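User: Design a sequence. Structure:
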């Protein structure tokens, strides 16, 4: 028996993807740098399945039908290069190598070039859905050599999450298109998670609600326009009690959020591109500030704030908090999709944003009922500059911007930080303002640096000697 596909990296993702692929009828060969991990898998979860466990790269490559199709699922960064260095010389023209980890898109561009020089096909594949998704149906975002995608299309379509509009996998374009889309997916994920955390903080500290009471609110929102995986798991987290103490586990968890870098990369890429993604950026900064636990503890005794108790009607506040969260979540998708639109234009990905929305509909962390109208809006207008300009998002802004203003205003009055919600509001307010104060900034730049400016009443480029007496 030769394997139809090979998986390298037998950690959480690799093992579950291998089992998923085999379960859909494709024999799999597996390899891991540390043999012990492969052995454990072979003798445990892989037992009795059409999974060939191999212990050298040569053995692994020999176990694969040609052209070989290899999915690498190792830690992003240097480990991928280390693996490719060993693998590339063993392969033949036309073989396909896929990096399914969270690699930086610039690394993917470089590796794709190296593969091409050897006559190999290469795909950078973003895979979302965590452990469960990998086993039961992830969302798969591929980019690179289209011929390579055709070699694995059937496998991907079988293993991906079944969405309302087809299997949640897609080929998004050449080069690093797949990893770029996955990176921005993670940026949106950061922004939605931060928005949810802010709503939790407002209900907890501001309204004094218990985890069970808050779970009820998230449950309600999850049945409405905000329905989605992150809202669903938030309800479940809030209801979960620590078996040891009987307390809600969430309240026993240290308040420092970790990150693996994709939110940061998404923000860095937005800055490089000159595209506005402030809500995603604020979510990254919020995690960074959360990590300053000791400094925060010290500062809490030095810098005074205000009583966090909001002193408002609970029912009214929660009703209006829905609108604030809803618009902030739309802003997260709007900014991420705008970034993808701009990246596609600059990097030549040829992205179809409606297709991206379709692939995000199931299997991934940001799956949400919102993706149905998002996809429709993008099908109607593929080059839509910003989601808020299309229905039903324009009407949502009309209906709820007052709530977003009110909620963030009250949060500020009581010293509860809501950077994601604040940034979502400021972003749309700036976007919809015809004349911003950037004229003053241009004047300042010209004053101290002779950077010149343009006028609204005359064509041309101007410089003024600002210190000269008028
Ligand atoms: N976990 C998730 O929920 C999730 C979700 C989506 C995407 N991803 C991405 O998928 C990839 C795999 O994630 P994971 O959580 O399964 O594993 P991981 O913890 O990121 O990485 C562990 C794997 O990398 C291998 N590895 C580490 N350094 C290596 C090196 N220098 N040379 C060769 N192999 C090396 C390990 O082999 P040894 O056993 O020999 O150490 C092991 O197989 C990552 O890029 C991750 O960001 C993860």
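Assistant: Done.
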């Amino acid at each position: 028996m030769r394997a139809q596909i090979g998986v390298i990296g037998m950690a959480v993702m690799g093992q579950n993807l291998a089992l998923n692929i085999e379960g859909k009828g494709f024999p799999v060969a597996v390899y891991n740098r540390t043999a012990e991990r492969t052995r454990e898998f072979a003798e445990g979860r892989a037992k009795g399945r059409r999974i060939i466990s191999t212990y050298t790269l040569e053995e692994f490559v020999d176990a694969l039908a040609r052209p070989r199709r290899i999915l690498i699922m190792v830690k992003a960064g240097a480990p991928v290069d280390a693996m490719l260095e060993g693998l590339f010389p063993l392969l033949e023209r036309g073989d396909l190598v896929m990096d399914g980890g969270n690699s930086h898109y610039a690394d993917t561009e470089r590796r794709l070039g190296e593969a091409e020089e050897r006559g190999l096909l290469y795909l950078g594949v973003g895979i979302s859905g965590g452990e469960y998704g990998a086993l039961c149906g992830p969302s798969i975002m591929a980019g690179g050599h289209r011929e390579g995608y055709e070699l694995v299309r059937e496998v991907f379509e079988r293993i991906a999450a079944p969405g309302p509009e087809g299997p949640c996998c897609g080929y998004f374009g050449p080069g690093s298109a797949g990893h770029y889309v996955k990176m921005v997916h993670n940026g949106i994920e950061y922004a939605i998670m931060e928005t949810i955390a802010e709503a939790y903080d407002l209900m907890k500290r501001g309204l004094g609600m218990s985890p069970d009471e808050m779970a009820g609110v998230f449950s309600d929102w999850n049945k409405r326009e905000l329905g989605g995986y992150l809202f669903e798991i938030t309800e479940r987290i809030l209801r979960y009690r620590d078996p040891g103490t009987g307390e809600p586990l969430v309240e026993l968890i240290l308040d420092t959020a970790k990150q693996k870098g994709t939110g940061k990369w998404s923000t860095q890429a937005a800055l490089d591109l000159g595209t506005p993604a402030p809500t995603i950026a604020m979510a990254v900064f919020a995690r960074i500030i959360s990590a300053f636990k000791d400094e925060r503890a010290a500062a809490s005794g030095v810098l005074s704030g205000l009583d966090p108790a909001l002193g408002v009607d609970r029912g009214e506040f929660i009703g209006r908090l829905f609108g604030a969260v809803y618009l902030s979540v739309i802003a997260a998708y709007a900014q991420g999709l705008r970034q993808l639109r701009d990246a596609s234009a600059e990097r030549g990905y040829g992205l179809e944003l409606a297709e991206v929305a379709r692939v995000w509909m199931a299997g991934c962390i940001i799956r949400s009922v919102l993706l149905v109208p998002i996809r429709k809006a993008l099908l109607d207008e593929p080059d839509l500059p910003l989601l808020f300009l299309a229905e039903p998002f324009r009407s949502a802004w009309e209906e709820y911007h007052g709530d977003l203003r009110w909620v963030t205003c009250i949060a500020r009055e009581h010293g509860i930080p809501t950077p994601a919600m604040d940034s979502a509001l400021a972003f749309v307010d700036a976007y919809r303002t015809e004349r911003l104060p950037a004229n003053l900034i241009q004047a300042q730049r010209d004053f101290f640096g002779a950077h010149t400016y343009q006028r609204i009443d005359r064509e041309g480029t101007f410089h003024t000697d600002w210190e000269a007496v008028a």
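The pocket of NAP is lined by residues 9-14, 32-34, 37, 73-76, 79, 82-83, 101-102, 127-128, 130-131 (CB under 6 Å). The first strand starts at residue 5 and ends at 8.
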